[in-house]
Amino acid sequence: MPLRSALMDGAGPSHDLAAGAPVAPAPAPAPPAMMATLANAVQALGRGFDVTADTRLLYCKGAPASRLVLLDERRARDVALAEGAGGGGGGGGAVLTNVPVEVDVDVFPKMAEYFNKKSGLSGSVPLGSFNSMFSFTGSSKNDAAVTKALALDGYFVPLFKVKLTSSELVLREDVKRAIPYSWDPSSLASFIENYGTHIITSVTIGGKDEVYIKQHHSSQLSSSEFEKYVTDIGDERFLNLENQSNTAPINYKEKDITVIFRRRGGCDLVQNHVEWTRTVPSAPDVINMTFLPIVSLVEGLPGKHYLARAIDLYLEYKPPIEELQYFLEFQVQRVWAPEPTTIPGHHRKEPVCPFLQFSLMGPKLYVSSEQICVGRKPVTGLKLSLEGSKQNRLTIHLQHLSSLPKILVPHWDSHVAIGPPKWQGPEEQDSRWFESIKWKNFAHVSTAPIENTETSIGDLSGVYVVTGAQLGVWDFGAKSVLHLKLLFSKVPGCTIRRSVWDHSPSSHSTQKVDEVSSSSSSEGSKLAKIVDMSEMSKGPSDSPGHWLVTGAKLGVEKGRIVVRVKDLSIGSWMLLLLMEENEEGTAIPSEPQTKATEKVNEVIDGKIDWRGRPARRGKHGGVNTCWFILVSFGLENVASLSLAVNLITYFTVTMHIDLADASNALTNYMGTSYIVSVAIAVFADTFIGRYKSVLLSAAVELLVLQLSTLHIVFLINEKLLISLFFWFE
């Protein structure tokens, strides 16, 4: 929404002050705070600025007056401020000293058109002031994914604007010399850190009182309702609330909307908006800046396009400035191996492959056991894929960088000895990790995580990263098991800075999976529902933007085969960080984390949880959940004993059967029920799981007991009614 303009002229603004005539104030001395802010704004002109930060003078690059462009400081002049400029706080007779001739000071009458241009920057990449005002994280993809709509309402109270008037700015020679002539991430990161991305060309001081409204995707408000809602919030904030005593307060949380009130300049202790505007001249602040890209002043330099690309990447993905060098190192082309066959009319001969079967009459999924190796090229992602003319052959693909980043050349170039690569996979006999896909008597997946155990946080001997992958099938008859093997290669001279399991697929992979599913055959469509073909990779949008795959595992989620990867960001020994992120994303010290993880992930031999996976002590199986089965069986035994006593009583008293015959009949009944229950338990444990079998058994027995109780109560009440009837007769 457009801003409401409160244009400061004299007696102080009201809601419709923008349309009113200015009232000339009496001349008064300029407040010291105003003069200090003006002087600082003049000193900021021409300095470097990182536009990923908020528009505040404290974020300027370099020391005060260390401008990146050449100004004629020798012809500095004193500028007298016009009387009445700056609102009710005065300004008459005030003088701003040592102002370069290329700097002009504008008061209110020249600024009406300025507010439509704001910072004077082009493009749609969110910058620092935008993120700061709306409390965004800086990751445009993540912020956009949770935001449905944005709105802004507020008042600007501009007092002065200082700006560079020269149309031909020239960079200092030392700044030009700092621009590298080639793609050198170290020099480019150093340049951005020291000089910023843009040059400040104007600074506006005054005050602003704004409301920022953020509508989340969960909000049910339509566009028209949201616009009316924004108007109501603005009226509640900026109108005189004394005339709205009957208006109920607006509830923000119920509508899934975030409302942020921000003021800059003026006295924060004053709540009323009209009264606050009167305090702006005595305590002004920077309310806007305009910028000029540094790359626009380096025409003709060989390294211009390298600097432009580095700045564009930095502004788009906003990595931490201390990670910028590593981030730029990894911004090279990414390709998938093996490469797809694109020759028209070419059909590769279908290889002979083992297969998985998920049900008795279901389709077969053939598994390619081809080894995929990429050599000394960093792997950044994995994905499963269906290939073949019938889309029924499962393959694995590796995403890797097309070239080796310069930072890894001293450690991983072809002439560096790193030792032979090592294949690593799960043990065939370790059934603790076997998880069924649909039925327990058919195809399974080995969900054991595959990672090199020689690598640890802080280990200075090097890091083992993935450079190859292979799928395989263990044949146990109908119960075949799909497993994954990885090839590990050592990167000496590097250490782990952060390591985390990635459970979320790439944002752009879902659409590709849908396209593949819709274009495949009917048999392939059925298999596409069983195989998750999402790309598991971390890219520049995942801070800090430089990740390598160090492990992976297969899994089963909602009846689909999935692959999950473990990524790490690496660094040199000088940037060692002895912290590791666990799967939940929290950071904890490495040694206690290792001990705690080992204790939590301790597997109980021969035990499985309710999904048939290896039981982990302290989570799904073992001592923490055994009470459930013990209590259930204990209650069932008590119920069985009660039923036996009731049956004996019923046989001997009601049916007048001898005690021996009654006991024999009870034994036959209970024996038959136990045999049937064992048969049902075997069937249930095969297809629905052990824990669900216990729940089902307990539920059935409880239902039978309740029905029996109701039947007995009904009979007793019926006899009682008959007795009462005869008694009244």
From TrEMBL:
Record's keyword annotation contains 4Fe-4S: no
Listed transmembrane segments: 627-653, 665-688, 694-716
A Pfam family this chain is assigned to: MACPF
Gene Ontology CC terms, in alphabetical order: plasma membrane
Gene Ontology biological-process entries: plant-type hypersensitive response; regulation of salicylic acid mediated signaling pathway
Domain of life: Eukaryota
Region annotated Disordered, chain positions: 500-526
Gene3D superfamilies: MFS general substrate transporter like domains (1.20.1250.20)
Domain MACPF: 28-328
Keywords: Membrane, Transmembrane, Transmembrane helix
Name of protein: MACPF domain-containing protein
Source species of the chain: Ananas comosus var. bracteatus (red pineapple)
